[in-house]
Predict the 3D structure of the following.
Amino acid sequence: MKPLDKLVSLYGQNSKHSNYQILPRKLAEILGDNAVDVLSRFERERLNFILENVVIAGKSVLDIGGNTGFFTFEALEAGARSVHHFEGNSEHSDFVNTAALALGCSDRVEVTNAYYEFAEGDDRKYDVVFLLNVLHHLGDDFGGGKATVEDAKLEMAHCLNSMAAVTECLVFQLGFCWKGDRNSLMFPGGTKNELIDFVAKSTEGYWAIDKVGVPVRSNDGEISYEFVDESNSSRDDSMGEFLNRPLFILRRR
């Protein structure tokens, strides 16, 4: 199978997290915009906020739960020295390896087909870590079983704080529902402030919240991430659950 055909085939493999990311810009140019069916989760808008607030050029990056590599390849495009891509789904990992060859950047991408073991620690250090919408899947996609939502939240906080030994800058996002189950709410009110308070209190002594971005819809319907304030901190059910998740830039204390 030709590399480009293989990419299309791998991207379409059915899994819980398939079609979860749009294609990185350079790969979309090679494959064509209509090569794969994609359900966007506002990757480009989140990336813009990240690049406006985190220096990526010349940095080493760890992308945990990197899926099909949008943030991995866009970090390289932004000048990252290297990216270590961790992904437990074998088809997604194979996709990233194949894409790296197609894009001519395989010397700067390391792919590990495994779920990141937070509890085991990591002797390697990175300048920036992406941990985007991973931890609420603890006990489902990775990690041991937990009896209650509160037990799971305590373990999520432990995972989050363990990353302070790995990086000085953590780009973080978390869902409202444990394991994606809408009947297992981690934050009863489902509000941005509840989630922000959880991160602030559970990481005290490890992380300082540098920036928090939240999605805002303009009059023409465009989405952008802006700094959280009183005008945009309320929950907006019309935007759906994903667009109520804050995006954190955390700096190690």
Q: What stands out?
A: The chain has a mean pLDDT of 89. The first helix runs from residue 3 to 11. The two ends are 49 Å apart (CA to CA).
